Amino acid sequence: MKLLAASSWRPICGGITAPQGFRASGVSCGLKDSGKKDLALILVPEGSVCSGFYTQSFVRASCIDLCVQRLNSTKGRPRAVLINSGHANACTGNQGYQDALLATNALAQKLNLNVEEVLMCSTGIIGECIPMEYLLEGLNQLVQSVDTNGGPRAAKAILTTDLKSKEFAFEADLGGRSVRIGGMAKGSGMIHPNMATMLGFLACDVGIERDIWLSMTKRIVDRSFNAITVDGDTSTNDTMLAFAAGQMLPKRYWDDLEEGLLLLAQNLAQSIARDGEGANCLLEVEVQGANSEKEALLIARKICGSSLVKTAINGADPNWGRIIAAAANAGVSIDQNMLDLWLGPYQLIRNGEPLKFDRAQASKYIQNHIHEENTFDKKVIIRLMIGSGSQSAVAWGCDLSDQYIRINADYTT
Q1: What is the mean pLDDT of residues 90-94?
Q2: Is 234 considered catalytic here?
Q3: DSSP track, 85-138
């Protein structure tokens, strides 16, 4: 599935606070030595429903356990999310869990909420507890500054090694009224499918039954945040929370809403891949001719995640053998005699046979998309036909440069 055109959805400003009733804030309270914003808050309207998706790692941060427990206890109707950056608070034992309880309890008191209505997300260095004295001191400023224009501040406060904030919002006329959706995300390294370190937050100002919302957002996550990779590493803290609150939306508009939410989520997901640590370009891989969308996505993600493919793209080398080798190692049966492969406008393989192509021009095609600005129309596109099936899928990644090694070699120094 390709990135959807906006169709009836118009881009607007505001990010996570664009939908009516949602408020946010982002402040610096000293969690980061850099002095950059490091603490964020999202306030959602009363009666909202929430779905949560998390890392598939067997080792996960205490804040995820807290989210799962509280979404269950409130039947998916929380009112606030506290987010800190700089410290993952993962692998920190009982102290980490107690700190999460302390932080959310203190925030609940300031917001006059039941503590069960407060969720928490953390991101940063694994194995480091949160400096609680700074976080607790920062809550007053965080609560006092929350407003309907706080989305951009919150989007900055959740970043770690990201170079850019990631937030989008859209609006459409559905059922005789204006509907708004918005979201923000963070992620640059430790990004790989299965809730590949990333955090994501989506919001919309419509009412919808929780079971329908869970099904809808599950499909969206699989086709967006679970369709990206930067380096093949998932984190202990990966989380995506999606909120819906407002006037009930008639059933006949649910498909329109899902289309918009997928547009929003895929924009955020591509932003994460494009901002991969040390990356110079966005890579898009579409696999066609599969027997199922799941199989197509497995192959597309395998190609995006191949270090050999990623380094070839970084070097503007149209080495198609690396692409085929990665595809064949995805655990999905492919018909070698039906393989068709394109790199941008250049077809490299037809019916499993290599074609003569202008190698210099194919290399130039890649070069023209390296060091481009963060726009989604500037990306290296690979398209692979693997058989006679009717299903397809798209995944996104980035090239792999020597800067990735330098960034991560010096990450904690």
Answers
A1: 90
A2: no
A3: EEE---S-HHHHHHHHHHHHHHHHHHHT--GGGEEEEEEEETT----HHHHHHH
55, 92, 104, 197: the catalytic one is: 197
pLDDT for 184-212, tens place per residue?
Answer: 999 865 555 454 458 999 999 999 999 99
**pTM for the model:** 0.88
Query: Degrees (nearest 5) of the Cα angle 67, 73, 76?
Result: 65
Beta bridge partner(s), residue 288: 385
Cα-based torsion angle of the residue sequence 256, 258, 262, 263 in order, rounded to the nearest 10 degrees: 20
For residue range 354-404, what is the model confidence (pLDDT) as tens digits?
Answer: 999 999 999 999 988 876 554 555 799 999 999 999 999 999 988 887 777
Instruction: Determine contact, residues 301/229, Cβ cutoff 8 Å.
Output: yes
Q: What is the pLDDT of residue 194?
A: 54
Average pLDDT taken over every residue of the chain: 89
Instruction: Give me the architecture of the 282-409 domain, per CATH.
Output: Roll (3.10)
Contact predicate 204/44, CB 8 Å: no
**Range 10-274 classified under CATH 3.60.70.12:** yes
Determine contact, residues 287/246, Cβ cutoff 8 Å: no
Q: What are the domain boundaries of the chain?
A: 10-274, 282-409
Nearest CA-CA partner of 82 in 204, 201, 235: 201
The whole-number average pLDDT for the span 109-136 is 94
* Total number of residues shown for the chain: 413
Q: DSSP H helical segments within 223-319, as ranges?
A: 254-274, 293-305, 307-314
Alpha carbons 371 and 374: distance in angstroms, whole number = 9
Q: At what angle do helices 293-305 and 320-328 cross, to 10 degrees?
A: 130
